[in-house]
């Protein structure tokens, strides 16, 4: 069952942050309208998305250039054909941390 996990403060990273939950890497992205989380592994050949280029809310896989919509995980460009999983996020007003439900 998914639970909220305290991850990091938005001021502690530039645009991307990686953390590990149950041996799975999860990527946190800071966009203009908030923070989002996806699995960190590209659905094509498992390259880390936190190392990709971010353009207009999309992340380009650093290995072969597949493009994923960060907010939804949808794949928008080949060679990947499957979306990446996304996770709910929130910023707790009391402690200022990003929480990810995973
Ligand atoms: S590993 Fe990401 S596009 Fe190939």
Describe this structure in words.
The protein has 102 residues and is mainly β. The protein has a single domain (4-101), classed as Rieske [2Fe-2S] iron-sulphur domain (Rieske Iron-sulfur Protein). It is 0% helix and 45% strand. FE2/S2 (inorganic) cluster is lined by residues 42, 44-45, 47, 61, 63-64, 66, 79-80.
Short key terms for the protein model shown above:
102 residues, mainly beta, Rieske Iron-sulfur Protein, 4-stranded antiparallel sheet, 11 strands, binds FE2/S2 (inorganic) cluster
Largest sheet, described in full?
4 strands, antiparallel
Mean pLDDT: 97
**CATH fold group:** Rieske Iron-sulfur Protein
What is the end-to-end distance? 8 Å
Number of domains: 1
Number of helices: 0
Report the strand count: 11
Per DSSP, what share of the residues sits in E-state strands of 2 or more residues? Answer: over 45%
Q: What structural class do you assign from the helix and strand content?
A: mainly beta
Helix share of residues? under 10%
- The radius of gyration computed from the alpha-carbon positions, rounded to a whole number of angstroms, is 13 Å
Which CATH class applies here? Mainly Beta
Question: In summary, what is this structure?
Answer:
The chain is built from no helices and 11 strands. The chain is mostly beta strands. The site of FE2/S2 (inorganic) cluster has 10 residues, from loops.
Q: What is the topological layout?
A:
Elements: E1 4-8, E2 16-21, E3 24-31, E4 34-39, E5 53-55, E6 58-60, E7 67-69, E8 75-77, E9 86-87, E10 89-91, E11 98-101
Antiparallel strand pairs: 1-11, 2-3, 3-4, 4-9, 5-6, 6-7, 7-8, 10-11
